[in-house]
């Protein structure tokens, strides 16, 4: 096989049922078609998983994948992608996380691993220098993510990157997470439950292995790395993120009307935002940056104030502070740090937990559920109620058993509450109100992984972060309340996000000035290709369309499910987005036109153009 630069060209296929590992190789044409990361994930899963395969059954496939940037010194290349059929939505599942897992897997000789079957006993994988072992994890079953990390590290006795699930994943909570190295959460779509369903407690990967993959022009890559380093270091965004991280967004997003308040039903929360956002957050918790590998930003927050210990996992970020804080009217930072630590250790997604509890607190207030159901008063602002419910959900205790199934199942039990169940495709809307930034409509209602804030972060163009390489209309900033071209922007930013999720490159670095031209230049230096920004967009478009085809195969009906939640059809009365409701149907039609989809179904010509017509 011709030398493949930027890759090992190897995927480890792991059958837990039969205790077997085989190696599948791929060539340059496969690499250029799918890049890596999310692209490799959909290419493998779409060929293997059917509509009738239970996401929590042995036939489902769980893929961990890297990209051509992974394992190089390029800044922002430290993440890993986890993909599967989601137990929460029944559709495409995808989440990425940081830490050291991505570079460690790549430098162990694998571009990806794909896991099927179910182990007969609790197990974990040990990966090092081109070898994968399936080992007994019975002694770790029942431990939280931190205990698992510490115990496996001690028992193996070498430096490791460890991706682990907690009790929530073991209990198949449908929005359970995988936590890498105590701070890199693969949070959305329930990838932790898929691991739990396979009796797979953890994946331990040796750091600093001896294998190296070929790079076309390593000397030029080192020079480009220094150029990117200088550019990113000089960016205001980098400096702000390093100092304050995502909590820096709480106060401005409250002001703009983006922040969820009281299950998206209140308009302003100015004093509360000051109590949980930066700079108070940074000063009170005595924050230090906690970077992933090859990161100069370190947006993850390490808490050093001993009054908040034991806080051994990453501190709460914007989405957590918003969904567990402002969304529930909780402004006590100690309660939020504790809830975040509980979620990370037990292994559940803070965004989905906030969406479920937003429904629960409102349903309690309206008398739909009561203390006999919950065991505790679900009063707005109650940190005690929040933390008690987190534990109940993770343990599937009492009403927590229903809540662990997600919003769709909850509404099936309480159909009269649909009006305040804020979800799309069964996944709770993250902390970005589309009434405040109309470009968020598409990622809210038409993301391939369910309602999402970053599966195409088109809000960026309303913040002035454009993509000039791709021309109009995304070469100029857009007013956030203008609706023309928001469907077009939604499609383009979705495509580019899946490029980032396949290279793999942390999206923060786009805000730090690493342009699409830069990304093409880096890719070509690594691989020897002649990729253009336009080709990158086409690859991203292929990946998004392949994911959408998978969802259609799983039973998605776009006309019925790509709908803006009822709560967003009513305008805020005050605040930064008062009186604004996005014309979501116009934006969706514009999106379909840009995609060349007919009522949400890709045209034959589009599929042929993307080389998906044989799928």
Describe, in plain words, how this protein is organized in 3D:
This protein is of the alpha+beta class and 615 residues long. Helices cover 40% and strands 13% of the residues. It has a 6-stranded mixed β-sheet with strand order 2-1-6-3-4-5. Helix 2 runs parallel beside helix 24. The radius of gyration is 22 Å and the shape is globular. The two termini are 25 Å apart.
State the separation between the terminal residues, measured CA to CA: 25 Å
Give the overall pLDDT as a whole number.
Answer: 97
Helix content: 40-55%
User: Major sheet: size, sense and barrel closure?
Assistant: 6 strands, mixed
- According to DSSP, the number of beta strands is 18
Low-confidence stretches: none
What is the count of DSSP helices, taking H or I runs of 4+ residues? 27
How would you sum up the global shape?
A: globular
Strand order of the largest sheet: 2-1-6-3-4-5
Task: Record keyword descriptors for this entry.
alpha+beta; six-stranded mixed beta sheet
Task: Give a brief description.
The protein is of the alpha+beta class and 615 residues long. The mean pLDDT is 97.
Helix/strand layout:
Blueprint (H helix, E strand, L loop, with lengths): L9 E6 L4 E6 L2 H7 L2 H12 L13 E4 L14 E6 L6 E6 L3 H7 L4 E5 L6 E6 L2 E6 L8 H12 L3 E5 L2 H4 L7 E3 L3 E3 L4 H7 L2 E7 L11 H16 L2 H9 L5 H7 L13 H7 L3 H6 L1 E3 L11 E3 L14 H8 L7 H14 L3 H16 L5 H4 L8 H13 L4 H4 L3 H7 L9 E2 L2 E2 L11 H6 L13 H4 L23 H18 L4 H4 L4 H12 L5 H22 L3 H4 L22 H12 L1 E2 L2 E2 L1 H6 L6
Parallel strand pairs: 1-6, 7-12
Antiparallel strand pairs: 1-2, 3-4, 3-6, 4-5, 7-8, 9-10, 9-12, 10-11, 13-14, 15-16, 17-18
Helix pairs in contact: 2-21, 2-24, 7-23, 9-10, 12-14, 13-16, 21-24, 21-26
């Amino acid at each position: 096989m011709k030398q493949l630069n930027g890759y090992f060209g190897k995927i480890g296929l792991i059958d837990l049922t039969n205790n077997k590992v085989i190696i599948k190789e791929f060539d340059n044409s496969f690499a250029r078609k799918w890049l890596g990361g999310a692209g490799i994930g959909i290419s493998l899963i779409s060929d293997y998983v059917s509509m009738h395969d239970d996401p929590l059954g042995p036939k489902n496939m769980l893929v961990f994948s890297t990209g051509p940037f992974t394992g190089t010194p390029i800044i922002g290349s430290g993440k890993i992608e986890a993909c599967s059929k989601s137990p929460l939505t029944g559709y495409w599942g995808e989440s990425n996380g940081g830490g050291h897992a991505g570079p460690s897997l790549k430098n162990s000789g694998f571009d990806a691993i794909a896991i099927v079957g179910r182990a007969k006993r609790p197990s974990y994988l040990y990966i090092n220098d081109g070898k994968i072992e399936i080992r007994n994890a019975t002694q770790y079953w029942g431990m939280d993510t931190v205990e698992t990390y510490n115990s496996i590290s001690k028992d193996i006795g070498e430096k490791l990157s460890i991706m682990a699930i907690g009790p929530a994943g073991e209990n198949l909570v449908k929005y359970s997470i995988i936590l890498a190295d105590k701070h890199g959460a693969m949070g959305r779509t329930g990838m932790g439950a898929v691991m739990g369903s396979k009796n797979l407690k953890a994946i331990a990967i040796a750091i600093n292995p001896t294998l190296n993959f070929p790079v076309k022009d390593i000397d030029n890559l080192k020079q480009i790395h220094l150029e990117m380093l200088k550019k990113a270091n000089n960016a205001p965004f980098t400096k702000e993120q390093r100092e304050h991280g995502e909590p820096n967004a709480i106060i401005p997003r409250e002001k703009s009307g983006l922040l969820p308040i009281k299950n998206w039903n209140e308009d302003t929360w100015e004093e509360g935002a000051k109590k949980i956002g930066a700079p108070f957050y940074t000063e009170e918790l005595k924050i230090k940056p906690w970077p992933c590998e090859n990161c100069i930003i370190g947006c993850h927050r390490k808490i050093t104030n001993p009054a908040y210990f034991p806080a051994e996992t990453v501190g709460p970020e914007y989405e957590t502070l918003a969904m567990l804080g402002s969304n529930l009217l909780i402004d006590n930072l100690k309660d939020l740090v504790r809830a975040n630590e509980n979620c990370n250790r037990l292994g559940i997604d803070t965004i989905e937990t906030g969406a479920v509890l937003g429904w629960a607190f409102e349903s309690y207030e309206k008398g739909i559920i009561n203390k006999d159901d919950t065991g505790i008063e679900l009063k707005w602002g109650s940190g005690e109620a929040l933390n008690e419910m987190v534990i109940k959900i993770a343990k599937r205790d009492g009403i927590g058993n229903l809540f662990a199934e997600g919003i769709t199942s909850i509404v099936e039990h309480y159909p009269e509450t649909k009006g305040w169940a804020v979800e799309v495709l069964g996944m709770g809307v993250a902390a970005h109100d589309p009434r405040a930034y109309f470009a968020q409509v598409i990622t809210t209602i038409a993301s391939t992984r369910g309602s999402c804030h970053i599966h195409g972060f088109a809000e960026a163009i309303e913040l002035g972060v454009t993509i000039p390489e791709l021309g109009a209309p995304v070469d100029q900033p857009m007013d956030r309340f203008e609706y023309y071209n928001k469907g077009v922007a939604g499609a383009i930013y979705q495509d580019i996000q899946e490029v980032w999720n396949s290279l793999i490159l942390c999206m923060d670095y786009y805000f730090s000035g690493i342009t699409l031209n830069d990304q093409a230049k880096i890719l070509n230096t690594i691989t020897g290709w002649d990729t253009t920004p336009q080709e990158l967009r086409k690859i991203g478009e292929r990946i998004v369309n392949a994911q959408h085809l998978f969802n259609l195969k799983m039973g998605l009906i776009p006309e019925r499910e790509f709908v803006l939640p009822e709560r967003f059809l009513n305008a805020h009365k005050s605040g930064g987005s008062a009186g604004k409701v996005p014309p979501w149907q116009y934006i969706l039609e514009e999106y379909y036109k840009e995609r060349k989809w007919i009522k949400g179904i890709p045209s034959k010509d589009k599929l042929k153009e993307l080389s998906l017509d044989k799928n």
